[in-house]
């Protein structure tokens, strides 16, 4: 069992506008530079959403392939594409994300209200995503926005088997308006429910907005890993906008070191997540 901390950076997301958040990496060059700098600081996984020439979220197949290739050329980071996209993305486009051949892809374990929107994840769609990833050797990160999503994951694995590589890794996304709160109590409840999943299941956690720091500290204290980045928060501290993703990764690394659980390298993360070396 690793005692280190797996740090995932989620630098862009699909929700913030470049006009509102100028530091958001939206071009391929900005993304690659961010990836290199976050890797140097201690990130091991990059959770990727891409943008078009107008900085709008897109699941364009060519751009996704170019992005995977560029990140592999420039870094050793584990490339995790978002299959969640934006709330408006059709299921077919979200499934087609896998055609870009990432190491990992996200797989959200249920529908959730998402602010004023709905992030739709039908059971049949989840099964489709999970089985396609099994077929292609793409390792999922199961996104958990609510406690019941863990029950759905237990059902999924029971009916359709373990993911590629045989290791189960989940990410608690806490504090989305409509999902579970970004509280220590909710994280502990999730951590308890993880015990019903296959032995060795690992988890990371991220708190949205002001939940970032409490969730980070709570996750470290109960043996969890960390996801940070401008997808999840654009405010560093009260009244202080995030200057860059690197600022968030550096803070996470500092907390992990204080917790005596320093960041794992990308190579160690591959082993942890059941990815080929
Ligand atoms: N943008 C959200 C609707 C994922 O990347 O898989 C979905 C999301 C989760 O960010
Ligand atoms: Zn995402």
Can you offer a commentary on this structure?
This protein has 277 residues and is α/β, with parallel strands linked by helices. The protein has one domain (7-273): TIM Barrel, CATH 3.20.20.70. The protein is 38% helix and 19% strand. The chain has nine helices and 14 strands. The strands form four sheets. An eight-stranded parallel barrel has the order 1-2-5-6-9-10-11-12, surrounded by eight helices. The longest helix has 14 residues, at 28-41. The chain starts with 6 loop residues before the first strand and ends with a helix. The model has no long low-confidence stretch (mean pLDDT 98). Bound molecules: (5S)-5-amino-3-OXO-hexanoic acid and zinc ion. (5S)-5-amino-3-OXO-hexanoic acid (KMH) is lined by residues 13-14, 82-84, 86-87, 106, 108, 114, 119, 143. Zinc ion is lined by residues 10, 13, 47, 49, 82, 84, 106, 231. This is 3-keto-5-aminohexanoate cleavage protein. Pfam families: BKACE (PF05853).
Features:
binds (5S)-5-amino-3-OXO-hexanoic acid; 14 strands; two-stranded antiparallel sheet; 3-keto-5-aminohexanoate cleavage protein; TIM Barrel; 277 residues; 38% helix; 19% strand; binds zinc ion; 9 helices; single chain; globular; alpha/beta; eight-stranded parallel barrel
Give a brief description.
The protein has 277 residues and is α/β, with parallel strands linked by helices.
State the helicity in percent bands. Answer: 25-40%
Largest sheet: 8 strands, parallel, barrel
- Globally, the shape reads globular
CATH homolog superfamily: Aldolase class I
- Kindly name the structural category: alpha/beta
Low-confidence stretches: none
Strand order of the largest sheet: 1-2-5-6-9-10-11-12
Helix count?
Answer: 9
How are helices and strands ordered from N to C? EHEEEHEHEEEHEHEHEHEEEHH
Calculate the mean pLDDT score and round it. 98
Total beta strands: 14
Terminal Cα span: 17 Å
Q: For this structure, what is the CATH class?
A: Alpha Beta
Strand content: 15-25%
